[in-house]
Amino acid sequence: MRQSQQERRIAVQLMHVRHEKEVLWQNRIFREKQYEERRLKEFQEALDREAALANQEKIYSEERICKERDLHEKIAAERAEARYKKHYSMCWEVIDQIIDLSTKTGEYRMLTNNLIPIKLMRDWKELFFNGKPIYEQASIEPLPTEPTPEQLVELDKMKLLDEKDYDEYKNMVGEWCPPEEHSGSKPPPNNNILGHVVHRLMDIVYPPMPEPPPPVFPPFPIQGCVLGKLFSGKSTCVKFLEEACNIQVLSIDTLVQDSIKAFHESEIKSESSLIPREAEGSGKQNEVLKKPPSALASQVSEIVPKSTSLDGTKGNGLGRKESSHQEMKSSESKDEVSKLSVRACLGAASEKLLKKGTNIPDELLVDIMVEAIKRTPQKKGWVMDGFPMTINQAKLLEKALTGSDPDKAETKDEKSKKPSLVTDPAAPKDPPLSPPALDFALLLDISDTTVLERVAGMKDKSGSSQIQLEDSYQASDLELKEREKIDLVRDQIQHRIAGFLDNWPKLEKWFSVQQNILVKVNGETEKNLLCKRVKEILLEEIAKKENRRKDLEKKEAEKKQEVPTPLPQAETLTVPADKNKETESPSQDREPMPAKSKSPKELPKNSESFKDKKVMKDEVPKGKDAANKPGSVRGKSPGKKSSPGTPEDLPPPTLVGPPPIKPGSDEWVYIDEPLPKEIPEFLVPYWETVENTYENTIKTILGCLRKERYSVIHYLADNRNHFKDYLKRPDHKQEFVSQWQSDYNSIADDLWEDEETKAELHQRVTDLRDRLWDICENKREEAEQERSDIMNDGWLPDHMGILMNHFFSLMQVEVDRFQDTKRFLHDYYRGMEGKMPTEACQEFTRIPLLDIVNVEQSVDQSKSRRIPMVSRRPPSPEINVIKQKSKAIQLKSNKEGNSSESIIFNFGADEKLITDTWQAAVTAISNMVTAEIQSKEAEEEKERQQLEKKEQERQKPPQAAGGKGGGKDAKDAKKPPPKSPTKKKGVPSPAPVVEATPIPLTPEELKKQELKLKMKQEYFSALEYEEEAAKSRLQLIKTKALTFVEELVMKAEETYKYMEKWLGARFLAEMSSVDKLTEIARHHVECSTRIQYELVLDETDFFISNDVKVIPDPIPPPRPPPVETSVNGTLTISQLSTLHKQFLQVAPKAIKALKHFKGNKSKVSDEGKEKQCFEHQAKGNRQFLKTWLSKYPWLKYDDKRGIMFCALCRKHNVNLGENIHNFCSGTDIFKLEFINIHHSSEAHAWASCMEAASNATGDQASTEQMLKSMSKVTLGRIENIFRTCHAIAKCGRPFTDLDWMCKLDDMKGVDIGYMFRNDKSARTFIHYIAEVERRALKEKLEKCKFFSLISDGVADNAIKEGAVVYIRFAFEGKVHCQIVGVQSVDKSDASTVKNAIVKTLQINLQVNLSSQDWSRKLVGFGSDGADVMVGENNGVAKLLKEIQPCVQSVHCFAHRLELAYKGALKSIQLYTTLSGLLQNIYYFYHNSPLNKSNLKSIYETLKLRPAIPSRIGGTRWLSRLQTALQILLKGYPAILLHMNKMQGDPSASNHQKVKGLLKLLLKMEVVKFSHFLLDIINVLNILSRVTQDRNSSIADIFATMQSTLETLQMYKTRSGPKERLVDAVTHFHGHQLVGNENILPVRTKVLSNLVRRLHDCFCDASQDVLRATTIGSFKLWPDKIKQEFGEREVSILTKHYEPILEGANVKVDEVDTEWSMLKLELYDRFQNIRSLTWDSVNSDYSHKYPNILMLVDLILTLPASSAEAERGFSQMKLTMMQLHSKGMSESVTDLMIIQLNSPDIKKFDPEKAIHLWNSAWQRHRRLQTGYMITNGRSDCSSDSDFDSHYGSD
Questions:
Q1: Per-residue pLDDT, 1758
Q2: Alpha-carbon distances, residue 495 vs 76, 229, 398, 445, 498 (angstroms)
Q3: Of 298-302, 912-916, 1748-1752, which range is least confident?
Q4: Which of 901, 1460, 1672, 1820 fits as disulfide partner to 1755, beta carbons 3.0 to 4.6 Å?
């Protein structure tokens, strides 16, 4: 179908529209895509910008963190530096004081001869501990009106010492502690009656202020605080506790904000918010609550500005500078404020302070906290978050919650420590410490670094949140405040950390030490773990508090059940009182004091009536009834009538009344009757004056005594030093000596040999000696006169009088105190009786003082004195008067008698004077008490007579009607009064009234009588107590005075004895020097020689001065002429000059010929040799001269090689490694200098020795040839090496020490050489040194006729089992005991040990014990008590007897002594206890260096020589036990003092151990047994020393054992010297001992067991033979000759040892005869026979009596002990430990032989050892050479074998 044009147009249009739409759609898509890209770009840019900002913030934050960390480190460094400076200053001050104390001690040690008085040391310690300087800073004698600081320091020191001395005197401790013999006379601690009276009067005059009641709070389940640094997790933990445990959290910041908010909201008080009045607290907060709100507001506005802020500034008043408008506004709003609550008022005060920019004071913060606590529900506990922050807040909070002020409590304690003469017995004791207000204080402990890290983490979070808030622009006010808070914390972090570190030490001390509630938790753990741990602590504290509450309720319930009802108790007390009154009334005549007889019957009723009167005066009928019961006529009439059947008389036998109550006891009820107002006002100042006067006077006197002690010390020291200087005064002896020497040397030469001249010279020497002696004698007389003048100068007697006056003044002070106290009590009790105090009619007692001046005065002057004076006769008035006239007589008397005896100290008179003065004071006190009692009795008697007179006048009508009966009764009534004064008591006035008085006394009168009697009893008891106390103090003063004066006399006598000793020693020394001079002079006279050098006689020294010649030197011979001539072919100088010119002319020709010779030689040699020749030519080689071969036989020349070499060095291959001129391999440098050097070298010397040894034929010949061929240098080197090896072996050093010792010798310049310097060479040389000793021992053994063997075995885990062998022999009376060797043992049986002994003798000494030559010499065998040694059936001794039947086996006496001692004390319990105590004390100090150091310091404090407790047991058990006991007893006070100090510290780990040791140390039986055991040990130790002496024989030990047994037998009946010191003592070194003091059964048992066991010491040997050996000890010989002495013993010995004696060629038949003759000659020649020794007897009589002296050698040969073998084993163990060896090698034997047998290092001669070594080496070399020749080896290759034998370098 054809389309129309219109349709086509429409289609085109439609297509066009469609295309447009498509374009629009495409454009829209493109635009959307552009928008999307733009949005993505902008978003990416925002992200990049945010990342950049975050990065920048991170960088800024890191920089801030680094700055804060650096600032913190700087602050921490400053704090550490401040602490260091403070600590350094403190240490410096302490060190300065220690130095002063040390120097002061050293100074006074010089002044007192190392005997410093303990009082001075105590004073110095007191100054040291109080930080006062010990040395005097300035003089205070003329004290100015304005003292300097140094003088003020001295005054403080004097005051401190005065206080210390007064406290010691008042409490009777320290220096004033009563001695042990007067310990029972120490006064009782307090006069309770006087104390009650004084404090009652004090309370009347100075009434105490009542204390406010404590605040009351409801009981909370828990109350505490959580503390810590900033960001330690406090808030997190308390929030967790609030949610988990239902705990109220109290944060001070939140509470302040709530208070301010309450003020803004005008919070009004409601009834529910108010706390009841009885539950309100004390202090400012309670006062605030009690007042109305209007007053509260005004009070807050007044109080708050006056308080101090946290930073130390003071706030201004709230309304002080306000404008008038504000004042009007505040007055208008006063009514509104009065309606506000307490919290609102506190908030108002806080807001005002905060607006002013000041801190809230601690008082206001505590009030806010307390108000919050009061608002806390009762069933809900509370915890404070971060409060308190300072110690002031903690104390204020404690005061607000408990009512107790800690500061006032401390001030009260300081005031209570003020000394007073008496104390109140009824004063309440210190109340128990109130429990702390808080139950716990929890510290979250974190480090400062953690705080900074947490702050940094918080900043990062805040930074990210800040960026988000800025982007979102939705930050709320709360978030802004949080950001501001974080910024504020960030700025204050360092200051808050520093503030916590400053305040926490005080808070820690408060919570941990004073309140003990602090709990520390590590705050750096995870959050969950930290909260869990805090919750556990809180629950534990809640459980503890609940348990304490239940326990307290249970105890209160038990107390309520135990309290009895008071009504039955009152009935039981009154009935016995009535009965006792009736039964005791007839016995009043037998009692000395009426008050004491009436106390039992009156105390109960008086106590009741007095209490009734004191409490309430309206209860008079009750008091009357109580008084009428015992005082009525009806109550007393049955007692007078004899009606036994009455019911009132029956109860007394059945009812037993209470014992009489002593006045002043705790049960005594004091009488507190009303006093007139004037009495307390007068008595209180009077008593204060008495106390002050007493204290000040005592301090003054004690200070004077202290000064006198110093003056005495300095006076005696000055006298000693002055006398020493006086003895050293110059004299004219040297002038006479010089003149004599000049005259002597001027003698002509031709007269020296003339006999008359010599006689004349001897006479001159004698004259010089006499003149010098006269000078010495005159000096001695002058010194004696000077000493006498010092003794008689009168200073000591005068100061002794001054000291006595000081002690008399002390007695006067005590008497004055008693008189004042008596007067005080007298006025007090008279005041209670309603009487006026009487005037003192008698004068006070005055103790006379010594008149030191001794000036005669008139009677009027003596009467006018207030203090009487007594003259004191001087000690020796005649000496001073006739001292100049009778000088010779006085010196003669001083010579004849002892100077100490001539010192006249009137100590007996002084002692009598002190005793008389003390007796006068005591008598005066007793008289005053007696007079007071008599006056009281007289006054009562007068009152009673007046009362009787009134009664008689009242009863006249009834008596007239009664007739005679009444008169008789009246007469009987008048009889008792005259008897009352004689019995010192009055007859009771109711006695006559009971029978015949119709009108009874009223109850009031009876009550007054009872009070009066009780008052009298109380008054007299107080007086008796004061009398006893005063007498005790006077007794102590007398004792101290006598001790002080006696000590002064002893020190003076000691000083004068020292003077006499120095004088005598000086005189003897001078005389000795004169004798030496005389001897030298006579020697020169006899030798006919002049004295060339000056003779010097300097005081006590004589010497010849080599620096001064008195004779000129001889003229030297004339010098030879200068013309030089040729002698023995030696060229002169001119000839040498001519020769030198000729050499210069010939030199060019020689060089040309040498070049030609080298050219021809180079054609034959190879290129290498040609090069070598040119090198040598360059070095200046020369030609070899044939003449050298004849001069040096050892020099060889090789023509082919063109070298020269040493034939000996090449043959023996001795090469020292020279580089150029090596003569072993050869050298081509032909210089005579090199040949001479090699000829004198060490290598050539050794090669010469080897050559000489290889060519020798015999040992001796080789040795001599070797020594001849050696130079002196080489021989000296060998001797030095041998000496070094000997020293190594002697000192027990290892072989390897030879190397470094040789190096040390090289450094010192000692020529040792370079060979034989290793350990192998040392081992070889030591072997030959030991071999020399073995050969010497064998030579001695061959000379002697007898020997004994000593052996002992060892079985130790450290080393192999072995046997050591010693040999003992005597030759010509001298005993020798030396080691033979050590031999290993495979098994410890008798046969093996015996074979080891035989093998040792065979190897070391080449002695065959089985041969007849040696077996006939064996006489004894010594060993320990082991079965393998002394077994009867199969022991070593038994096997040796098979070889020699006469062998005497001896069990070691030292070992037997140990067995006897341990067996005797095995079953003694005291010994076991003492041994354990010594062992425990040793380990207590040995294992603790701190304990050891503290003990040493205590030793130094006590001025004792430090001695640390030692161990017991071991090898030297006896000496160790002796040392341990001596240390324990000497150091007993120091050890006990140290342990007492440790016992006082219950926190010490070894507290129980110290307690147990102290308990044993204080036991009396332990102390006494220690002294007893020390006596025994001292005796046994002497015996042990004799047994362990190698030179002791059996006879010596037997003699010592006899004296030991006699001494022990004596101890059975008499105590030993140590035990006598503690026989009857109860104190040891000032410590009270407890326990049983009777150790008699124990000591008897110990002595009996010990004596019995010592008798059996030689049970394993023949008793007859051993007893016969007593002739070998001169100590057992009788003083005078006895014909029969020794005859029986000699016959026993000759019979027993007959085969051995015959084998030694001893004529047995002549032994008895020689014994008798020798005995007679010895007694005729020597007076003291016991001082002889057998070696001296042998030297004089060996040719006359050889047979008997040979028998004596046999006796001396017998062994007594095996102590030497034991010592040998100890040495062997040390040696093997140094060698690090467990096997007993040959080197061990060598070392032990050198250590035990060889001479000392100084006396060692190595010549024999060198000879022996060379001979042995020569034989080895010969064998080695033959072996090499057989095997075709050359001589030059033998060096390796040489090194293998001797060791290579």
A1: 85
A2: 12, 11, 27, 18, 5
A3: 298-302
A4: 1672
Which secondary-structure segment (H or E) carries 1353? strand 1347-1354
Q: How far apart, in whole angstroms, are the C-alpha atoms of residue 457 and residue 53?
A: 18
**Residue 757 exposure: Cα atoms within 13 Å on the Cβ side:** 18
Helix (H, G, I), strand (E, B) or coil at 1423: strand
Query: Token pair of 1633, please?
Result: 């001992």
Axis-axis angle for helices 678-727, 1003-1087 (nearest 10): 10
Contacting residues for 1519 by C-beta, under 8 A, at least 6 apart = 1581, 1584
Question: How many residues does the structure list for the chain?
Answer: 1849
Determine the Cα angle at 844 with ends 841 and 845, to 5°: 130
Three-state SS for 858-900 is: CHHHHHHCCCCEEECCCCCHHHHHCCCCCHHHHHHHHHHCCHH
Backbone dihedral region of 3: left (phi > 0), alpha (psi from -120 to 50 degrees) or beta? beta
Residue 1088 near residue 753, CB atoms below 8 Å: yes
Gyration radius from the chain CA atoms: 56
Q: Which helix (H) or strand (E) holds 1347?
A: strand 1347-1354
Highest mean pLDDT among 337-341, 597-601, 896-900: 337-341
361 phi and psi angles, rounded to 5 deg:
-70, 160
Specify the pLDDT at position 1264: 47
Distances (CA, A) of 952 to 290, 574, 640, 920, 938: 69, 33, 21, 47, 21
Q: Is the pLDDT confidence value at 893 over 50?
A: no
- Close Cβ partners of 271 (under 8 Å, ≥ 6 residues apart): none
Cis peptide before 566 (omega within 30 of 0): no
Of 218-222, 463-467, 713-717, 1785-1789, the one with minimum mean pLDDT is 463-467
- Per-residue model confidence as pLDDT tens digits over 742-789: 888 888 887 888 888 888 888 989 999 899 999 999 988 999 999 899
CA 836 – CA 1299 distance, rounded (Å): 108
Check residue 511 and report its DSSP letter.
Answer: I
What's the mean per-residue pLDDT of the chain?
74
Closest CA relative to residue 897, chosen from 784, 1036, 749: 784
The amino acid at 400 = A
- What is the residue-wise DSSP string for 1517-1537? HHHHHHHHHHHHHHTHHHHHH
Inter-CA distances, 1177 with 515, 1172, 1218, 1230, Å: 103, 8, 20, 12
Closest CA to 1508 of 1496, 1520, 1526, 1490: 1496
Residue 210 and residue 559: Cα distance in Å, rounded? 28
Q: Residue 1002's CB: how many other CB atoms inside 10 A?
A: 13
For residue 1165, what are the contacts with CB-CB under 8 A and spacing of at least 6? 1173
User: pLDDT class for 1417, splitting at 50, 70, 90?
Assistant: confident
Q: Which residues of 495-521 are buried (b: 16+ CB within 10 A; e: fewer)?
A: eebbbbeebbeebbebbeeebebbbeb
* 1281, 1295 Cβ separation under 8 angstroms: no
Burial class (CB in 10 A: 0-12, 13-18, 19+), 21: exposed
pLDDT at residue 657, as a whole number: 53
- Reduce the DSSP state of residue 1102 to 3 states and report it: strand
Q: Which two tokens stand for residue 1005?
A: 């009168």
The pair of structure tokens assigned to 1577 is 């040990």
Closest CA to 234 of 72, 445, 376, 394: 445
Half-sphere exposure in the Cβ direction for 1107 (13 Å, CA): 2
> What is the dihedral sign for C-alpha 700, 706, 707, 709?
positive
Task: From 1084, 990, 1171, select the one nearest 627 (Cα to Cα).
Answer: 990
